[in-house]
Structure formats: C-alpha cells, structure tokens
C-alpha cells in the first residue's frame, strides 16, 4: 500500500491523504481539494503548512489560496459582471468590485467526497463535486469530477477535470499551488524559465486589459531567463505589480522552470497559464516562512475575464449538454 488516510476532522469529514514511497511523498486534503505538500528526497517543492496539526485553520486563514482547487472561475471577472446568451449576471464582488476565484464560497471552501484508486505505482484520488447556482450565482449547476493522480515512478502529479452543466455557464478551473524548488523558501529569484514569455497587460485594477501582448514581450534569447531578470527588467507592468501576476500564452502546452538541481515540467491542454509570484505578503504562518517572491504559481486556465473580452466566443463557456475535459500535469525531473 503506498497511501495513507488520516482523519483531521471527523465532523467536517476532512482528511489528509498521503501517497509515498522511499523517494517522494505527496499530500492532499479533500478540504478545497488542495495539494498540501510534495517532497522529493525530503525537499519540499511547494509552499504549504509546516505541520498538519493546525492545517484546517491554516487554510481557513491563508489568503493566497495555497494549493487549492479553484472553480468555477480562476482569476478576476471585472465588476463581477458578465453577459451570456443576452442575459446579464451579477456575481459576488469579493475582491474590491471584482469577482475573484469564483467568490468567497468557491470550491476552495468546500469539503468533497472522494474515492481512491490504487494501481501499482499510480494512486488516484477521485473527487465528486457539485457547484450550485444557489451558492455562487453563476448560471446552472455543475457536476464535476476532479482527479488528483500521482505517479510515484515518474514523480508526476496530474489533475483531470470532467464536468457538465444544467445550463450554459462559465467554467474555468485551475489549481493554485505555489512552487519553490529551493531548499528554503527564501526566494524564487534564481529559478530559470525556459521559454519566451509574452505577458497579457493588466489595467491598474488588475483586470486583463487587452489581447495585445506586444509591449511586454520577454525574449529569452539564450536558453533561459531567471525570475530575477524579469523582476529587474524595468517593465512598467512588472514594477507596478511588484512581480508577475499575468497570463501568458503557452507555445506548445508545456512550461519548464528549474533551479540548479531540479526541473519542474508542466504540461497542459489549456492555452494560457497565469503566473503569480506572491508579490505582497500580509499574512504569515507561525514560522514566518512566507516571503514576498517565495513561490510562483502556474495556473493553467483560460484567460481571466475572457467572457468580457471575447463574449460568446470565450473559451470558458460551458454549454449545457457538452462535457468539459481538461488535463494538466506537473512533473519533477532531476537535472543531470
Ligand atoms: C492570483 C491572482 C493574484 C492574487 C492571488 C491570490 O491568481 O492573480 O492577483 O489574487 O491569486 O493571492
């Protein structure tokens, strides 16, 4: 058996699920379908609570959505408003006047039922999820399965989404894990990115301004660029937000980030990834281990606010009768 389940709160049905062998250990909780920790040879490659004792309280308070599954909608919808099929919808405004990550009752607050499937070195946690119009005010009720699969041999965590809706609606799920491949969580500055990146510009209110990425085009030229190079690049957009908080179009569905020892290889069927570099910190854990730029996200999803930029052609629209399918995986490779 390569997994264990620990009950954290019997009444609330909250569990901690650990999948492990000698080389790696990955932990998940059904509270917000979070990834809690991922250790390769004892080195943690993500940000999360250092002890499981106060895990529930930690996630109730953490304002950065550490490790959480976000749905129905990752990112901001401007003014919490959109029009679909000629009808106007007003969502909760939980981030100033905007709707962020689906609202304050988003999936990250829910405790989900699950089954575990264990086949040799691959363990799957299959979550059964309902998103209700009566809770988040998006149209329609969504029935979704979210699978977190861990392949112990290949050090590969895969997320599989499948969903249908009772009405035409929006669905733009993602996971809000923060990576840091270093031994300590001091800073991700030394991490290298192995792609040219073109950031979508944001307005002052953090909403994606336009589909034109021409002005913030970071060309690697050589074979990599570090986060420090980007932070120091002088781009007005990077200075204004004290780091990266921008969507990027993926060239071929992959994205690699590495330090001297490890490489994180992301693969997805989504066209965009939002990179956020934890640009301000005003909440901390007991050990003050969360710092500005101490982690980065790779949120694979459609462009935030796509419904207001692309209207009826927005990729996040899920039509009644259609099935939403999406797969993203994160793999850790040792560098030679
Ligand atoms: C990101 C978002 C950031 C910030 C963060 C949560 O997805 O782009 O602006 O809100 O979530 O701390």
Characteristics of this structure?
GH-type_carb-bd, nine-stranded antiparallel sheet, five-stranded antiparallel sheet, 336 residues, Gal_mutarotase_sf_dom, binds beta-D-galactopyranose, mainly beta, single chain, 8% helix
Secondary structure layout:
Layout: E1 3-9, E2 14-20, E3 24-29, E4 34-40, E5 43-44, H1 55-61, E6 69-70, E7 76-77, E8 81-84, E9 87-90, E10 99-100, E11 113-119, E12 122-131, H2 133-136, E13 142-151, E14 156-165, E15 169-170, E16 174-175, E17 178-179, E18 192-193, E19 197-198, E20 217-218, E21 225-226, H3 227-231, H4 236-240, E22 245-249, E23 254-258, E24 262-268, E25 272-276, E26 296-297, E27 299-301, H5 306-310, E28 317-318, E29 324-334
Antiparallel strand pairs: 1-2, 2-3, 3-4, 4-5, 6-16, 7-10, 8-9, 11-12, 12-13, 13-14, 14-29, 15-28, 17-26, 18-21, 18-23, 19-20, 22-25, 23-24, 24-29, 25-27
Residues 64-65, 75, 100, 206, 245, 274, 276, 299 line the site of beta-D-galactopyranose.
Detailed description of the structure:
The structure is a single chain. It contains 5 helices and 29 strands. By secondary structure, the protein is mainly beta. The strands form 9 sheets. A 9-stranded antiparallel beta sheet has the order 11-12-13-14-29-24-23-18-21. A 5-stranded antiparallel beta sheet has the order 1-2-3-4-5, with no helix packed on it. It has a 3-stranded antiparallel beta sheet with strand order 22-25-27, with no helix packed on it. It is globular. It starts with a strand and ends with a strand. Bound molecules: beta-D-galactopyranose. Beta-D-galactopyranose binds at residues 64-65, 75, 100, 206, 245, 274, 276, 299. Beta-D-galactopyranose is lined by residues 64-65, 75, 100, 206, 245, 274, 276, 299.
């Amino acid at each position: 058996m390569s997994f264990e389940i620990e009950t954290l709160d019997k009444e609330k049905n909250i569990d901690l699920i650990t999948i492990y062998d000698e080389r790696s250990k990955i932990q998940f909780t059904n509270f917000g379908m979070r990834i809690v920790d991922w250790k390769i040879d004892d080195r943690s490659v993500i940000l999360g609570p250092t002890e499981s004792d106060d895990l529930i309280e930690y996630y109730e308070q953490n304002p950065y959505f550490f490790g959480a599954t976000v749905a129905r909608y990752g990112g901001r919808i401007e003014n919490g408003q959109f029009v679909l099929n000629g009808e106007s919808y007003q969502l909760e405004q939980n981030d100033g006047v905007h709707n962020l990550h689906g609202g304050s009752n988003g999936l990250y607050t829910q405790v989900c039922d699950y089954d575990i499937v264990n086949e040799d070195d691959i363990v799957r946690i299959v979550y059964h999820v309902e998103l209700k119009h009566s809770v988040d005010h998006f149209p329609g009720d969504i029935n979704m399965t979210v699978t977190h699969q861990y392949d112990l041999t290949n050090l590969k965590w895969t997320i599989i989404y499948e969903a249908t809706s009772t009405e035409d609606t929006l669905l733009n799920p993602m996971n809000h894990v923060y990576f840091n491949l270093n031994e300590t969580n001091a800073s991700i500055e030394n991490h290298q990115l192995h792609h040219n990146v073109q950031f979508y510009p944001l307005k002052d209110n953090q909403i994606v301004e336009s589909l034109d990425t021409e002005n913030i085009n970071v060309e690697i030229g050589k074979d990599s660029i570090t986060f420090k190079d980007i932070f120091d690049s002088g781009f007005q957009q990077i200075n204004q937000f004290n780091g990266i908080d921008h969507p990027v179009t993926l060239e071929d569905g992959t994205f690699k980030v590495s330090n001297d020892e490890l490489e994180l290889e992301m693969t997805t069927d989504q066209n965009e990834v939002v990179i956020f570099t934890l640009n301000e910190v005003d909440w901390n854990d007991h050990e003050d281990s969360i710092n500005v730029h101490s982690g980065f996200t790779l949120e694979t999803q459609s462009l935030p606010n796509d419904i207001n930029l692309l209207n009826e052609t927005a990729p996040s629209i899920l039509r009644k009768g259609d099935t939403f399918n999406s797969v993203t995986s994160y793999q850790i490779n040792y560098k030679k």
